[in-house]
Amino acid sequence: MIYLYRKKENLIYELHTLTLAVFILSIFFLALLFTHPLYLTSLMFITSLLLITSGNLKEWKGYLKFSLPLVGIIIIVNTLFVRVGSTVLYSGPRVPVIGRIRITLEALIYGGAMGLRLLIIISIFCLFTYTVQPDRFMKLFGKFSSKLIFIIILSIRLFPLMVEDFERITEVQKTRGVSIENDSFINKVKKTLPMVSVLLLSSLERSFEQAESMYSRGYATGRRIIYKKDIKRTRDKIIFSATGVGLTAGIISYTWGYTTYTYYPELANLNLPDYNLYFIFLITLMVPSLLNWGCKKWPKLKSKI
Amino acid sequence: MAQIKIKNLTYTYPDKKEKSLRNINLQILPGEFVLIVGGSGSGKSSLIRSIASLAPDFYGGKQEGDIFINNKNLKTTNRRELVQTLGIVFQNPESQLVMTDTEQEIAFGLENIGTEEKTIKRRIMEVTSALSLSDFKNSFIAQLSGGQKQKVALASVLAMQPEILLLDEPTSQLDPIAGEEILTMVRRLNEENGTTVILVEQKLERCFHFADRILVMEEGKIVKDSRDIGEIVKWAVKKENQYIPPLSKLFAKAGYRDIPLTIKSGRNIIGKENLMKEESKVVKTIPEKSNNIEKSILKMKNIWFNYDSEHEVLRNINLDIKKGSFSVIMGENGGGKTTLLKILNGLLRPTKGKVEVMGRNMKKLKIEEISKNVGYLSQNPKDYLFLPTVKEEMEFTIKNLHLEKEVHIDDLLDKLEILEYKQSNPRDLSTGERQRVALATVLASNPKILLLDEPTRGLDYDIKEKLGKILKKFQEEGMTIIMVTHDIEFAAEYAEDVILLYEGDIIEKGNKKEVLTKSTFYSPQISRLFYDYEEKIVTLEEGLKFLNKEKRKRDEVI
Question: Which residues of chain B have pLDDT under 70?
Fold first, then answer.
């Protein structure tokens, strides 16, 4: 997480961390609830729009590179192994392990929908990683246990330093002839052990130095307060309220069964019984992207909210 | 009245038999700028750790004697109270920062002592403006440069508004410009806010002139304590003590009564003595020719490199390194120096261009093959050391690179003056010894080219001198040396050629006399003193010869 967050100049990065966290968690939660392709596609659309308008298209592409093949695998596996659908697209010979090949439209669409759900979850993680400042996010939970939160923040900071140390040590050992690229697993482990021992020693030294610095700045000398620099502005109120409405609309739709879709044995009708609720859900969750776009287009709007 | 009073202080680290501080008695007045100098293990850091009560509170160990801050004994002072009186900045900017963004880091100490949120905001605003950090307030610490990180460390201490500021080699990992900036800020705090400053520093040319008082430490004792800097310099020269900057040393050695601390006063002295006469200005010497070296050993042709598609780290680099030469690469942090070195040893492959080592295209060589001829010593010698003995460390390289057994381990260790530690655990050795062990593991492959990345970082003058002489010895035996460094004085003393790198471009390269005498910041003190002379002078010895020669000429005229 720490490695990837980089502040960019747009409204999304100037939101209160709680606003952003609530929005992201809402999308995540709804993605787990919904099965209807229209609702899932809408969530994907909302997430993609925010990723693009917040300036993270390039970063998202990196995520897509590894997640799209994963989606492909889900679709293939589901299509090959599930035969409960009634619309047969292809019927083939018997194959070991799989049995007789029977590809149905229902299994294909179901695989696609589940792949889409996975894609939403991966994309929302991407959004979280690139837009939520880790210190500030952890400080949201400061009231529960400041020590625990502090340990987590410290680990977040130490982790990339350890990765850097490991890369550096690996380089040094490479110049000493330690090559693991074409070795057997056992040899790889044997050769990595010296590097890990150097890493452990240097990490211990670094932790000691950090602890000394913390101690010299009065850590653990009594009651500690948590400084939060986030300010709640009108924009937060707007997005927070819109997210609340969108989430409620989504939950009501789920409770009334609108977001559930029947795939087997035959695909149900895609039409929704009530489109009003759907549009409320869709438009309110698009508010962060719309507001961000609006602020770019009319800079005065940003200063007002 | 003394702000800090130390009475009969003796301190021993846990599990150590030797005392690190022996019977220290010292009084420091409010607003004083005290510079502590001395070699590795002389007790400088232990003294400031004791004043900050880190030794023994954090380190453990045994302490005798008393330290009083504002007449209050540290033994009875509450830690929360102490951290508001006294702040400490350490050597490594990376290891002393604990949060992920600048503002949170500055707030950290204030959060610890329960400062109100409103006050924290105000203090952040004040220190970020004072240290020119306002633009980086929301920056991610990982994205900051070394100098900016050290400024954040300083800001996080200053936010607590301490009356006393302790600094333990704060510029040792910074480039000359960033180092100057930090020390200038510290000086301003001392002059304008009356903050008492106690500074431990190795690069004396950067700070000697700031000090009101200098303490020289040896073996845990204060061997000299004076507010008369000229007296300290003369004493040090007489004792052949290294801990004075080259400029002062030059005048003391040349027998001058007035010892300058700044280039300006040095020029005034020479001016008064009528040495800067017009005729002396036209004296011209041909730049020293590098030894017997004509044949190329390393060639870089149109080298480009970028880690990602957006940032070009190296841009169209062309280099021709001659066999048996000693070159240094200098430039700001993040300018591409280490990347260049890693391309030369095959750890990184250029995005575009060709590198030839000893006439062979590096593209076709595996890193193990390159390592047999190109040795590489990285910034952190500890990265090399994990085996129980020095001998095993060397055998590890020899075995991995499939070299012949008859590599003379003993000879090499003897040359590096560490033969006596052959059976010792390398991690138990001192900083300088550990570095020479790491160097031994690199030289075990008997490379023709040696690449060194910041080898003098954190080393004291004596150890640096030892290293410089060792490197010269290897160069005389035919080894080609390429070194990345921020240490201008070291480069001036031992190297032959200088390459200046800026934002991935070579902006200057050539003989050190040509390059170092042209620059303002990347030039040693001695060159700056003789800046407007035709004669190119970069080392202390050359300066001394020149002064004596000019003096003789003047005497003859009289």
Answer: 273-294, 309-310, 404-407, 534, 557-558
Domain layout of chain A by residue ranges: 12-157+229-304
**Which residues of chain A fall below pLDDT 70?**
1-4, 142-146, 153, 156-157, 180-182, 229
Specify which residues B146 forms β-bridges with: none
pLDDT in tens, B222-268: 999 999 888 888 888 888 777 888 888 888 888 888 888 888 888 88
pLDDT tens, position by position, B338-376: 899 999 999 999 999 999 999 899 988 888 889 889 999
Q: Which amino acid would we find at residue B518?
A: K
Partner residue opposite A219 with nearest CB, options B112, B117, B120: B112
Tell me if B430 is assigned to some domain: yes
Q: Find the CATH number of the domain harbouring B393.
A: 3.40.50.300
Is there a cis peptide before residue A37, judged by omega within 30 degrees of 0? no
B383 → closest Cβ in A6, A168, A219 = A168
Strands (E), B295-340: 296-306, 312-322, 326-330
Structure tokens at B400: 């991995």
Contact A227 B83 (CB under 8 A): no
Measured in angstroms, the CA of B84 and the nearest CA of chain A are apart by 9
- Report yes or no: B142 at the A interface, CB cutoff 8 Å: yes
Q: How far apart are CA B248 and CA B537, in angstroms?
A: 16
Give the per-residue pLDDT at B407.
61
Distances in Å between the Cα of B307 and the Cα atoms of A161, A263, B90, B350 are 18, 47, 31, 10
Query: Distance (Å, rounded) from C-alpha A207 to C-alpha A172?
Result: 22
| Contact (CB<8Å) B371/A177 | yes
How many structural domains compose chain B?
1
- Name the strands in the sheet holding B86-89, side by side, starting at the edge strand that comes first in the sequence: B86-89, B164-168, B196-200, B33-38, B213-218, B221-226
A1 neighbors A24 (Cβ within 8 angstroms): no
What is the model's pLDDT at position B79?
A: 92
DSSP B101: B
CA distance B354 to chain A (A): 20
Which of A149, A216, A224, A230 is the best mutation test for B, with the most CBs of B within 10 A? A216
Q: What is the pTM of this model?
A: 0.78
Would you call B400 and A133 a contact, using CB atoms and an 8 Å cutoff?
no
* B470 contacts B440 by C-beta, under 8 angstroms: no
Q: Give the CA dihedral B137, B140, B142, B145, nearest 10 degrees.
A: -30
Domain range for residue B375? 296-523
Q: How many other CB atoms are there within 10 angstroms of residue B26's CB atom?
A: 17
Instruction: Give A165 to chain B, closest Cα distance, Å.
Output: 9
Least Cα separation, residue A245 to chain B (angstroms): 32
Helices within A86-145 (DSSP H only): 105-131, 134-139
Residue appearing with tokens 């490594």: B92
Asked if ipTM goes beyond 0.95, one says no
